[in-house]
Amino acid sequence: MVIKMAVRLRNFKEIPRLVSKFYPALLLSYFLLVCYGSYQSSRGGIDNLWLRWLSSSHECLRNNKKLEWSRSLHSQRYSTSREVSPEPLSEADFLSFIQSTLDEHQGYSFRWLNKHEGCKSFFKKDGIFLIVAGEDIGDFVLSGCNPLSMFEKVKSLQQRYPSLQVMGFQYSPSISLNAVPTNLLWRIMAEYILFPVLLSNKCYPQKKDGPCYIMFKGFESPLIYHEKDVDLATLDKAVKILTADHGQISRLVNKLESSWANRIQIVKEPHHYSSLRNLFLCFPGCISVDEDGNRLFLSDSNHHRIIIFDINAKILDSIGSVPGFEDAEFENAKLMRPAASFYHAPEDCLYFVDSENHAIRRADMERRVVETIYPTNTSKKTTSLWSWVLDKLGKKREVDTPSEAFHSDSLLFPWHLLKSTSNDLFVLNRSFGTLWIVDLACGVIKEVVKGLPKVLEICGEVIVEKSSVLKHVPSDWLQQQLDMTSSLDGIPHSGLLSSVANFKDDLVLCDAVGQMVFKLNGKSGSISSFQFSNFGVLGLPYWFSFPLERVCAAGDVLSEMHIDHIEGFSLLPGRVNILMKILIPEDMDLVEPLDKSCIWCQARGTAMEVSGAESKADSTEKVGVAQQWYDEIDHLTFTTSEGESRTAAETTGENRVVQEGRVCIDCTVSTSPGTSEVIIYAPLYLRLKRSSSSSTDNRVEDAARIADIIDPLRKPARDSVIQFLLSSKRDLKDLIFVKPLHVRLKFDCGDHPKADNSKSVVLTASSIEVNVVAL
After folding, report:
1. Dihedral of CA 568/570/576/578: which sign?
2. C-alpha to C-alpha distance for 415 and 151, rounded to whole angstroms
3. Which candidate among 125, 331, 468, 519 keeps its CA 20 to 30 Å from the CA of 603?
């Protein structure tokens, strides 16, 4: 053993001499390693340090240095200058590089975007991969390639084959791994990109102009498609080939043979813009109007809802509650990125395209019900108890449903919706490459038109007419919108076709870059943002609570949740009146008082929420049999007279502004012996306060302050959020955003006190005050 250690030590000492001969640039790294290793050696870390140093040195040489060896046998020369165009990796090295990045969020030459920072098992390394590789997959100028079509193909495959592991690979020799391009972040929002993107300064093999599709299984034998116009059927066939080669033809391959078909039960959303969801509007993409009814219909696309408001910006109603696909009443209907809409006055119905569901849907304004008119669905909804439990746990299984056979004419990611002179609807995708003519009466696709020239022959005049109103919009604002979208040659502003609507003398505009809605006065030409009100109609945002919150906090459900305030109390069993006072930051304005319909309150354990409970049945749904028995006793003991009950009803659960800069929330819980927890969620609609003393606005500070409020976890994507907010030329002090309030109160209650007769128990009433600072 002593001899072996001596040999290892001698070999280790030879390293500086060998390195100095061939790689003098690494001497400093070695010196720092030895210094650091002497500090760590007492903990046995020198071997690991040596391996890490060797690995990083190898990586450094491959990426930053290019050794230029002469052909002479007597001399060698080298260059330490940074290489402008790195040598492309071989296919084997490329796959090895991709595999080496899967477990790390950021490395020396790469960084993951739109990927969960703490998740190391995002991919299954033996699965089927689809990589979209290009120099700038977020830009519209891709050597003549249409990125809209590219994203549609990739997302369609991702929907049909949930087991397919999709990623983007954006490379550039000069890419900055510390700064995310704004156009790429905007593209993630605009195209609703669910797959992660790997940024790297490495090149991929066989570099060609534009993006390419790389498919493989288990990091072996990749299939590479360089064709710019490779069709969806070719990529679909490649997935089946890779699956069939391994003798495991998936059940999903046989089932999901449709370009629209999969109704996703467990909805995933882009990770990188999770903070931006706390803006009041998240990609307001399209708008339509009902002039006679004084109503406007705004598609708040990435919030999966349609907001109905009047010309004074008072919110009247909302269509859609959570992402998904389900017909129901407005508050229970599920949509996936609704886009353009059309109000049909004779029926008092709003027709709209449900983009990610590849559907056309109708909202009956009188009955307040959403119905799907295309595609028709004859499947039966599963109503078993086990399906209900899985749904509540967020683990509902996909149900085999008859689906339309795969063909190129199927409705795929519709976006624009126009009314023809006849009783038809013109439905177009974002790139205007496909037109579906739909019968308004029966919802049947009568004709599919492909190719831009043919599309323009049919509805070119309608597109020109509707786009022409944008010539009155200020050029600086208009150019910013056009930089982030695509327009047809010869038809200026056509990409904003569904983002503008006439309302009497005014022009209403969706600002998808600044996440606002504006009004252009037709007489004065002045432009102003809508100052929305009546937010209580929207209720609690769906992303504030997790499905598992209703049952248990398992796994890492709470790991991604910011908690503003946690406080514990030791109390006697009985009724507890809670008064929570929230302090609004001095640099923020509360847009309007918090409405009680926006508050989500739940008691778990030995406590039960009693405020707002209208019936005994409602109040006992959240607890077990033993707790119900205690609650019945509490209910009988604390029964009040009619007058007292009215007073309690007027105060309990009501929320009010107590004083300047404060919000108050009241609630009451009934506790029994044991431990319990009360969870309270509420959205505070805020905007930056305008300071009369400051003559100039600091946009960088404003963006940073907003980022801190909407992203309280201070995620690594914070700088990208700031950059995204700064991309808008509008005043950030007009931007309404949501402060997600999350409070948890823990109660530890002993046994009931005994009465003098030692047989009865004494029920007590307690009051507590909780002070929360909404930082």
Report:
1. negative
2. 14
3. 331
Contact assessment for residue 292 and residue 286, using Cβ atoms and an 8 Å cutoff: no
How many C-beta atoms surround the C-beta of residue 171 within 10 A?
23
Q: Which two tokens stand for residue 216?
A: 């493989």
E-only strand ranges, 639-736: 655-656, 662-688
pLDDT at position 51: 35
Distance CA 437, CA 443 (A): 10
Longest Cα pair distance anywhere in the chain, in angstroms?
108
The mean-pLDDT minimum among 54-68, 157-171, 209-223, 393-407 falls in 54-68
Picking from 144, 143, 141, the residue whose alpha carbon sits closest to that of residue 183 is 141
pLDDT tops 60 at residue 381: no
Instruction: Give the span between the Cα atoms of 38 and 34, in whole angstroms.
Output: 6
Whole-angstrom CA distances from 465 to 229, 339, 477, 493, 589 are 31, 20, 20, 11, 41
Three-point CA angle 401, 406, 408, nearest 5°: 140
Backbone angles phi, psi at 41, to 5 degrees: -60, -30
The residue length of the chain stands at 775
Q: Is 318 left (phi over 0), alpha (psi -120 to 50) or beta?
A: beta
State the pLDDT confidence band at 260, using cuts at 50, 70 and 90: very low
Buried/exposed 250-274: b ≥16 CB within 10 Å, e otherwise: bebbebbebbbbbbbbebeebbbbb
**Strand pairing category for 500-503 and 565-571:** unpaired
Pairing verdict, β 128-134 and 295-300: unpaired
Q: What are phi and psi of 154, to 5 degrees?
A: -65, -45
- The beta-strand segments (E) located in 274-337 are 284-290, 295-300, 305-309, 315-319, 322-323, 334-335
Burial pattern 184-198, b for ≥16 Cβ within 10 A else e, equals bbbbbbbbbbbbbbb
What is the C-alpha to C-alpha distance for residues 589 and 355, in angstroms, rounded to an integer?
A: 35
Residues 260-286 have a mean pLDDT of 77
> Residue 387: its pLDDT value, please?
55
Residues 62 and 39: their CA atoms lie apart, in Å, by 29
pLDDT band at 723 (very low <50, low <70, confident <90, very high): confident
Distance in angstroms (rounded) separating the CA atoms of residues 317 and 306 = 9
pLDDT in tens, 289-317: 999 999 999 999 999 999 999 999 999 99
pTM as predicted = 0.79
The pLDDT of 129-138, averaged and rounded, is 82
Lowest mean pLDDT among 389-403, 616-630, 760-774: 616-630
Give the per-residue pLDDT at 2.
42
| Cα 13 versus chain centre, distance | 53
Q: Are strands 737-749 and 565-571 parallel, antiparallel or unpaired?
A: parallel
Are 746 and 569 within 8 A, CB to CB? Answer: yes
CA–CA separation, 688 vs 313, rounded Å?
19
